[in-house]
Amino acid sequence: MIHYPILELVRLEEADIGTIGILKINKRVRFYTLEPPDFENEVRVSSIPVQQYLIKRHQSPTHGWTWKVLNVPRRSHILFHSGNYLDHTEGCILLGLSLISSPKRGIGNSRSAHEMFMEDMNGFSEAHLTVQEVF
Questions:
Q1: How many structural domains are present in the chain?
Q2: 103, exposed or middle or buried, with CB in 10 Å at 0-12, 13-18, 19+?
Q3: Which domain holds residue 45?
């Protein structure tokens, strides 16, 4: 029996367009993700380090209700939110339902993905997130 959701962010590809991955919730693939490339955890332009994190429900002034990744070394305000391209991330984790390649590469249906994510996480106030890379 799972008492809280277990999230796994699996990074599949890193390129100049960002880092593409998938987000699994309780061992089930649910979303595509887009993050910045790895720039050694530099604020607002880098993906977060590979490790385990606690995430908590959070109300952002910009993105409304979402989830915030806690205890990222030298970083704060790492959120899950909607957006389609690298310039939308600001160092955060974007969620999508598809990959897109035109007019440039990114993720699609991001608002719907974020709404689905919030529904998946409804009733919880915290969860564990494991970030890993397979490239």
A1: 1
A2: exposed
A3: 6-133
